[in-house]
């Protein structure tokens, strides 16, 4: 059985701020910003088949569906029920033949992007319009971006590097998150066990939030910030000059003028604060923290009840503060 390469080329005029949608299962995806108002996509298939004729027939069956409209381009993998597509796997097997695909696209930099994938790794670079990414297990890399970005993921890692101010909303189960931006105009990150790394200035409003069950927070500070840590069983280390106030399970750290406000809510995740790599003036070592009083004992919860609470948290029915209150038998924080 030999390997044959077939290519599907797609192009459409969508305008400077058009809409591009891509829905796939396993192909790897690379999207780049380009000049002009034209969107192009290239899908390269590697077909394992017994002959050229079998490869041609297979290619016709697995070609992606395309819908074009005014300011709109949608590219969708054939549905599971349609001829030519098997289950959700990286190699789609049809008899003795197999199919693998890689997708590359070039879009105007302010294109509104909507991506949905199952096990596809995605790279997108240079975009500054509204972007939405939904993945199950693929990794996500966003480079030189800005604007309004929303991510929903199950287990893939996400690396975000912005070159303009951005709004970021993310919800993950186990993937790690790393996000660096000149300024976060709005930030809301929710994860169950993934670690979160952030660096950048935080706008004075609104209140920025990070919620985890067991994931840690690493924060690079580049401007004044008030960090509030709400933790059931967590530890905080601040390696920049600051003052602190509040109780151990609800403590505030005021850095510089404390202009921006970030709330970190967690059950067992730790917080680490360091100088940002882009800080223009070197910061002196932080003074030692005064000793904190012992933590009050945690009220034990029935294991079945605890599992119920964690499931409700993972499904989004309750937030970390509510889950903490139920597990400790106390009222939720205001």
Descriptive report:
The protein starts with a strand and ends in a 6-residue tail after the last helix. It has a 23-stranded mixed β-sheet that branches. The protein folds into three domains: 1-138, no CATH class; 164-296, no CATH class; 297-334, no CATH class. The chain has helices spanning 52-62, 303-315, 320-328, and strands spanning 2-13, 19-23, 28-34, 38-49, 65-69, 72-76, 92-94, 97-108, 112-116, 122-125, 131-134, 140-152, 158-172, 177-191, 196-202, 208-212, 217-221, 225-231, 236-238, 243-247, 250-255, 260-266, 271-275. With 334 residues, it is mainly beta. It is built from three helices and 23 strands. The model is unreliable at 82-95, 279-287 and 292-299 (pLDDT under 50).
Q: What does the main sheet amount to?
A: 23 strands, mixed
Apparent shape: elongated
Unreliable spans are 82-95, 279-287, 292-299
Note the quaternary state here.
Answer: single chain
Number of helices: 3
Residue share in helices? under 10%
Q: Which class do the helix and strand fractions yield?
A: mainly beta
Mean pLDDT: 86
DSSP strand count:
23
**Topology order in helix (H) and strand (E) letters:** EEEEHEEEEEEEEEEEEEEEEEEEHH
Radius of gyration computed on alpha carbons = 24 Å
First-residue to last-residue Cα separation: 65 Å
Q: In what range is the share of β-strand residues?
A: over 45%
Counted up, domains total 3
């Amino acid at each position: 059985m030999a390997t044959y390469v077939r290519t599907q080329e797609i192009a459409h005029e969508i305008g400077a701020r058009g809409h591009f949608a891509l829905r796939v299962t396993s192909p790897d995806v690379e999207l780049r910003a380009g000049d002009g108002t034209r969107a192009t996509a290239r899908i390269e298939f590697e077909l394992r088949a017994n002959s050229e004729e079998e490869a041609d027939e297979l290619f016709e069956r697995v070609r992606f569906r395309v819908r074009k409209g005014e300011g709109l381009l949608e590219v969708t993998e054939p549905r599971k029920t349609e001829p030519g597509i098997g289950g959700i796997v990286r190699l789609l097997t049809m008899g003795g033949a197999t199919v693998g695909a890689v997708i590359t696209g070039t879009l105007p930099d302010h294109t509104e992007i909507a991506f949905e994938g199952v096990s596809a790794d995605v790279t997108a670079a240079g975009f500054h319009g509204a972007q939405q990414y939904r993945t199950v297990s693929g990794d996500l890399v966003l480079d030189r971006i800005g604007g309004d970005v929303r991510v929903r993921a199950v287990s893939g890692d996400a690396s975000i590097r912005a070159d303009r101010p951005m709004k970021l909303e993310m919800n993950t189960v186990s993937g790690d998150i790393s996000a660096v931006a000149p300024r976060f105009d709005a930030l809301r990150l929710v994860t169950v066990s993934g670690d979160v790394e952030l660096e950048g200035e935080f706008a004075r409003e609104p209140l920025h939030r990070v919620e985890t069950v067991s994931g840690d927070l690493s924060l690079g500070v580049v401007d004044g910030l008030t960090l509030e840590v709400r933790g059931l069983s967590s530890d905080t280390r601040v390696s920049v000059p600051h003052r602190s106030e509040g109780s151990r399970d609800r403590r505030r750290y005021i850095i510089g003028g404390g202009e921006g406000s970030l709330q970190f809510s967690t059950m067992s995740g730790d917080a680490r604060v360091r100088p940002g790599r882009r800080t223009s003036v070197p910061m002196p070592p932080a003074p030692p923290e005064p000793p904190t009083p012992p933590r009050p004992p945690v009220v034990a919860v029935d294991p079945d009840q605890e599992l119920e609470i964690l499931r409700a948290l993972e499904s989004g029915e309750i937030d970390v503060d509510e889950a903490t209150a139920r597990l400790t038998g106390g009222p939720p924080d205001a």
